[in-house]
Design goal:
The chain is α+β, with helices and mostly antiparallel strands and 292 residues long. The chain is built from 8 helices and 19 strands.
Length: 292
């Protein structure tokens, strides 16, 4: 079956829909010898070339998509490369044998906390699209006096430069003076929205950390700069939130390190795979007698 080129390439993990649209507009994608067009319908059997390199859609689409959470550090930038030489979140991710990591949303350079990465561009697109209304939760340290009236306005809605905005919920997380924390929830991801909402009330955000995206919560034990792959149950729920179905392909369940995964998401190391092969061998020696 044919699908729109942006959707098919995103699902194969070549990039987000926006990235693919930019490639099309720049004339960098060729379909069966002709420049690609936005919204063009293609199949995995079509010959697709990106910047002179052939794309192997069929193989990519058969591979099991991978998704992981990453604990971003303040000071890291959410780009693949930075002209200023700053550390980027992509440099801390595991290498892939096939596909590429697509970032789900972004955090500004001074914000730390939960980032999601996936090799399924369609999942990333659905999770980021405003129509999905996926909740994001943040821990915020506020500098300045916060009154009940301010909290009421932040929940009912205030006008920002790019339109009205509000928090779905605000929870007082405790602390005193300059170390007072709140947990806030949004269902969209506009640029610096959490900071701008608080600043509209005359207070400043001195620390900001994302602690949840949809059903995925930042684990307490996941240190800054480290990543953790999602298990089967979490992935299935994340796909459901995005309006998709998680369908792992068993024949492609090998990660970048040679480990395999069971349907439940449990990782089997290369060492364990080798031991299993040894244990599966017949316990007999020459002449049919059992080896000792």
């Amino acid at each position: 079956m044919k699908e729109r080129i942006q959707k098919l390439l995103a699902h194969a993990g070549y990039g987000s829909r926006r990235e693919i649209e930019r490639w099309i507009e720049a004339g960098e994608l060729i379909i069966n010898g002709q420049p690609a067009a936005l919204g063009q319908q293609i199949s995995p059997e079509d010959r697709v070339v990106l910047r002179g390199q052939k794309l192997y859609l069929s193989a990519r689409l058969k591979a099991t998509p991978r998704t992981l959470m990453y604990h971003k550090q303040a000071g890291e930038v959410c780009t693949r490369s930075d002209p200023e030489g700053r550390a980027t979140v992509f440099k801390a991710l595991p290498r892939l044998n096939q596909g590429r990591w697509v970032m789900v949303g972004r955090l500004d350079v001074n914000t730390d906390g939960l980032l999601l990465f996936t090799t399924d561009g369609e999942l990333a697109n659905r999770l980021m699209h405003p129509s999905s209304e996926i909740e994001r939760e943040y821990a915020v340290r506020v500098f300045g006096e916060v009154t009940p009236d301010m909290l009421a306005r932040l929940e009912s809605g205030v006008e920002l430069g790019d339109g009205p905005a509000h928090f779905l919920g605000i929870h007082d997380a405790g602390g005193e003076g300059m170390n007072h924390w709140y947990h806030v929830v949004l269902a969209e991801g506009r640029n610096r929205e959490v900071r701008r909402l608080w600043e509209s009330q005359g207070v400043q955000v001195s620390r900001l950390r994302r602690i949840r995206y949809g059903n995925i919560t930042l684990p307490r034990g996941l240190r800054a700069g480290k990543h953790q792959e999602l298990d089967y149950k979490s992935l299935r729920e994340l796909y459901r939130l995005a309006g998709l179905v998680y369908e792992p392909q068993q024949e492609s369940n090998t990660d970048a390190y040679g480990s395999r995964r069971t349907p439940s998401g449990k990782k089997i190391s290369p060492y364990a795979q080798a031991r299993a092969k040894i244990n599966a061998r017949p316990e007999s020696g020459p002449g049919g007698r059992k080896s000792r």
